[in-house]
């Protein structure tokens, strides 16, 4: 019923920027949160950031100060502005949505297919 589609990934040099988008369709979300997770090759899925539908934001320490989360509730779209990118940020980034506000993947019911972010010189 709910579909999430990520976009905006690509190749960028260290220190560069990218903006990821996540568009939700099929249902609207008036409660809960949307979030971003990432998974690098050979590593566990990692929390990146989340935003509640009341506007509260929370970031992982690894991205705090560099990434900024925003959303357009009317469009059911979430954005992740990524600045000062580092090679360590290289991963597949996944959009997720759920009915509770959480930084844990288990709390999210819906997931996108992911978009690749590669930071390399």
Short description:
This protein has strands spanning 3-7, 10-12, 18-25, 33-39, 46-52, 57-59, 67-72, 77-82, 91-98, 110-111, 115-119. It has 121 residues and is mainly β. Strands 2, 4, 5, 6, 9, 10 and 11 form a seven-stranded mixed sheet that branches. A four-stranded antiparallel sheet has the order 1-3-8-7, with no helix packed on it.
Termini separation comes to: 40 Å
Largest sheet: 7 strands, mixed
Order of helices and strands: EEEEEEEEEEE
**Structural class by SSE content:** mainly beta
Give the strand content.
over 45%
- Mean pLDDT, as a whole number? 91
**What proportion of the residues is helical, as a percent range?**
under 10%
Tertiary shape: globular
Annotation field: number of helices: 0
What's the β-strand tally?
A: 11
Structural Rg: 13 Å
Sequence stretches where pLDDT stays below 50 over 5 or more residues: none
